[in-house]
């Protein structure tokens, strides 16, 4: 024990020296647009609570009711005695939502991505992955034996070059639907065209899109009008869809069947708890009947994006509630987030190695449940602090 303690303490010290040590901020209230941090009330701009459903009373009631009806937990994996009617119901609802044949639930999207590639690809196959894909896609690909190709971020020429020279029996292109550091939607129109040309499958991880992006809120494929051309969708219940936890994969009958038979995080990990499953069913009911949440999110996003530019800040990304405000200098970005917190605006500064060097930024995440007043307060604070730090 003494040996490992010494080794790890050296590592921890060097993380601190590099300035990348992560202190967990403790929140003393439920997840809302207004939360208590360090004993004071702040407006929260850093949750993935896009639709504002994380503390929604209808969803909470559905979870409580499900505990009474279906119990707290299942104490089993799916195939032994961990599949209830509600698990099959939720899978069917998610399939319908994406117009896919079938869906499989996981404990998280991290697990979904971890259990996907190894199960469906062999050493004769090839995978093509955007260099900025989420860590769970990278890890999932690491586990599989297929030929691995990494293309430059959203660079379609590079992707085509790699597709052209690959000898893979099956080819699979894997991409985040939305890249969370930039708020950039993947160029799925072009990806789908290349997939057709080179007979490849397309896998999209839509964690930052499911439930609100696109005309019907069906994600990045919906946004680009190519939902029917996407072969595999993975996503999470832990962001817009209530924010609790759980993930899924939607695809063809055969792909989902082989995942049920062989995917290790599915086979060897506990079934999703009944209150989560029932609450997620309620979430889909709410978002299919009521577009108000999605519309309000779009309205809030447009308002913030427009006004923050008018103030003089440079922002990145597509029309997405992730709004990266470019500061470039890491120290300034950190100072900015601290000064904003003093004014009760809670945002996070990101710098190298999370984003490229000299591209430090403040990432703002807009929610449907932000009031206009809250957004305007943030805009005012940004303006004052931006001037103070001579950024604008
Ligand atoms: C958040 C996220 C995940 C992980 O989802 P969990 O359900 O929290 O495990 C995977 N991929 C992307 C792109 C994400 O943003």
Report the total helices.
15
Computed CA radius of gyration, to the nearest angstrom: 22 Å
Strand order of the largest sheet: 3-11-10-9-6-4-5
CATH level 4 superfamily of the largest domain:
Type I PLP-dependent aspartate aminotransferase-like (Major domain)
- Unique ligands: pyridoxal-5'-phosphate
Uncertain regions spanning at least 5 consecutive residues: none
Shape, principal axes of CA atoms: globular
Helix content: 40-55%
Report on this model:
This protein is α/β, with parallel strands linked by helices and 392 residues long. The chain has two domains: 19-50 and 291-388, Alpha-Beta Complex (Aspartate Aminotransferase, domain 1); 57-289, Type I PLP-dependent aspartate aminotransferase-like (Major domain) (Aspartate Aminotransferase, domain 2). It has 15 helices and 15 strands. A hairpin with a 4-residue loop joins strand 7 (178-179) and strand 8 (184-185). Helix 5 packs parallel to helix 6 (135-143) and helix 13 packs parallel to helix 15. The longest helix has 20 residues, at 292-311. It starts with a helix and ends with a helix. Bound molecules: pyridoxal-5'-phosphate. Residues 108-110, 134, 136, 176, 180, 205, 207-208, 236, 238, 247 line the site of pyridoxal-5'-phosphate (PLP).
């Amino acid at each position: 024990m003494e040996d490992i303690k010494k080794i790890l303490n050296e590592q921890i010290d060097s993380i601190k020296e590099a300035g990348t040590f992560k202190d967990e901020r403790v929140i003393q209230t439920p997840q809302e647009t207004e939360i208590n941090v360090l004993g004071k009330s702040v407006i929260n701009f850093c949750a993935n609570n896009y639709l504002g459903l994380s503390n929604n009373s209808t969803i909470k009631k559905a979870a409580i009711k499900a505990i009474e009806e279906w119990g707290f937990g299942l104490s089993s994996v799916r195939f032994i005695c961990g599949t209830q009617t509600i698990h099959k119901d939720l899978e069917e609802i998610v399939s319908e939502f994406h117009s896919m044949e079938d869906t499989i639930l996981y404990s998280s999207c991290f697990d979904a991505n971890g259990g996907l590639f190894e199960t469906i690809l062999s050493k004769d196959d090839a995978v093509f992955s955007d260099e900025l894909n989420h860590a769970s896609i990278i890890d999932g690909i690491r586990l599989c034996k297929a030929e691995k190709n990494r293309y430059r971020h959203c660079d379609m020429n590079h992707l085509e070059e790699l597709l052209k020279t690959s000898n893979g029996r099956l080819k699979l292109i894997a991409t985040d639907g939305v890249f969370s550091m930039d708020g950039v939607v993947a160029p799925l129109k072009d990806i789908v065209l290349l997939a057709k040309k080179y007979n490849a499958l397309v896998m999209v991880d839509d964690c930052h899109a499911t439930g609100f992006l696109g005309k019907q809120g069906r994600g990045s494929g919906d946004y680009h009008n190519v939902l029917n051309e996407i072969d595999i969708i993975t996503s999470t219940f832990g962001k817009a869809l209530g924010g609790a936890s759980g993930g899924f994969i939607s695809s063809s009958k055969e792909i989902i069947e082989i995942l049920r038979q062989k995917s290790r995080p599915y086979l060897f990990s506990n079934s999703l708890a009944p209150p989560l499953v029932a609450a997620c069913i309620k979430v889909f009911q709410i978002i299919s009947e009521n577009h108000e949440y999605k519309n309000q999110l779009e309205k809030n996003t447009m308002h913030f994006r427009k006004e923050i530019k008018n103030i003089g800040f440079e922002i990145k990304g597509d029309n997405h509630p992730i709004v990266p405000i470019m500061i470039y200098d890491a120290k300034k970005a950190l100072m900015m987030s601290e000064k904003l917190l003093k004014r009760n605006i809670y945002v996070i500064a990101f710098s190298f190695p999370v984003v490229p060097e000299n591209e430090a930024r403040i990432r703002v995440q807009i929610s449907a449940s932000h009031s206009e007043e809250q957004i305007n307060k943030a805009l005012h604070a940004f303006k004052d602090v931006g001037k103070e730090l001579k950024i604008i």
